[in-house]
Specification:
single chain, 327 residues, alpha/beta, TIM Barrel, five-stranded parallel beta sheet, Glyco_hydro/deAcase_b/a-brl, Polysaccharide deacetylase family protein
Length: 327
């Protein structure tokens, strides 16, 4: 019986919006890169700062946001329990995380929802003073796939202006809540971003082509991510977070080849800002700092470090890449 070759090899359907899928990537031979201080593993701590920008009746959304500690929901009116959990992140949790970062002397990247920084400007001042990166995480913490293309374009524009106002620097990176098929096109169209992180498909940055322009992607991860404390397929205790983070780092340091890779850790002040969970984070940071081949880096520094070693196709230098992205 003859088999249809399309059964084994099927291309994406023409005319479907959004980027083409790439199921091959680097394959067996990724580029060999090294990070700051010749490190083999770059640990990238991300603080998803969203508190005060989430969907609430109080802000006129007519709905309460999720990611709550318990599987309860209040419909058709304000849910003060959910609102107060988010408030914990901006009132207490973020400052506990800052104390941990200060003690360990590590830089972090904020995926910053612009309105959240507007509503707690002391956080914007603190992260700017520390030299942390504020990457764009939307104007509000809203699903971009729910927006029209024009609405999303406007949301990106407003987020840039707001973050630049509160922190003193425009964002160089972008990661929104649930991207749309238009997100990457709009990020490249805007012209001022060095990278986006709206993907989960690699352990290394990579170049892609958007509208005849080179564009750098610095992937994110939802594995070592504290959202799993309150989701059904997640961590039952801080020890499980620590064990997952430790096993991830151990494998990346000894992954069977000489390739340097990145490790993403995702945090939310309302979740990891709680004492027991913060303790697991602090213990992992201390563990990672025992190794000479590990570096803690901001996401923007991973982007520039990678681009210097693996230039964009047909680009001679990182300076040309950055000029092109900002032209």
């Amino acid at each position: 019986m003859a088999l249809n070759p399309q059964f084994f090899r099927q291309a994406d359907v023409d005319g479907i919006p959004g980027p083409a899928r790439d199921l091959v990537g680097y394959g067996e031979h990724p580029p060999v890169v090294r990070w700051h201080n010749d490190a083999k593993v770059a640990i990238q701590v991300v603080v998803n700062y969203e508190e005060g920008s989430e969907k609430t009746f109080a802000m006129g959304d007519g709905v309460n946001d999720g990611m709550y500690e318990l599987p309860f929901a209040v419909d058709d009116q304000r849910d003060l329990a959910v609102e107060s959990m988010y408030e914990y992140g901006s009132r207490a949790g973020i400052w506990r995380l800052f104390r941990i970062f200060d003690h360990a002397a590590i830089p972090v990247t904020f995926f910053a929802a612009a309105v959240a920084l507007e509503r707690n400007p002391d956080v914007a001042t603190k992260l700017a003073r520390r030299g942390d990166e504020a990457a764009g995480h939307g104007y509000r913490w809203s699903n971009h796939y729910e927006m029209t293309k024009d609405e999303e374009r406007e949301a990106i524009k407003r987020a840039i202006a707001s973050i630049e106002h509160t922190t003193g620097n425009r964002p160089s990176g972008w990661y929104c809540r649930e991207m749309s098929v238009n997100t990457r096109d709009l990020v490249v169209e805007e012209g001022g971003f060095l990278y986006d992180s709206d993907t989960y498909n690699e352990d290394l940055p990579y170049w892609t082509r958007v509208a005849d322009r080179n564009h750098l992607v610095v992937p994110y991860s939802l594995v070592v991510n504290d959202a799993r404390y309150i989701l059904g397929t997640g961590y039952g205790s801080p020890e499980q977070f620590f064990e997952t983070a430790k096993a991830t780092l151990d494998r990346l340091r000894n992954d069977g080849d000489d390739v340097g890779r990145m490790m993403s850790i995702g945090l939310h002040p309302r979740i990891s800002g709680n004492p027991a969970r913060a303790d697991a984070l602090a213990r992992f940071i201390a563990y990672a700092q025992e190794f000479d081949d590990v570096a803690f880096m901001r996401r923007v520094d991973i982007a520039t470090c990678f681009a210097a070693q693996v230039p964009a196709p047909n680009d001679a230098s990182l300076d040309e890449v950055e000029r092109g992205l900002r032209s």
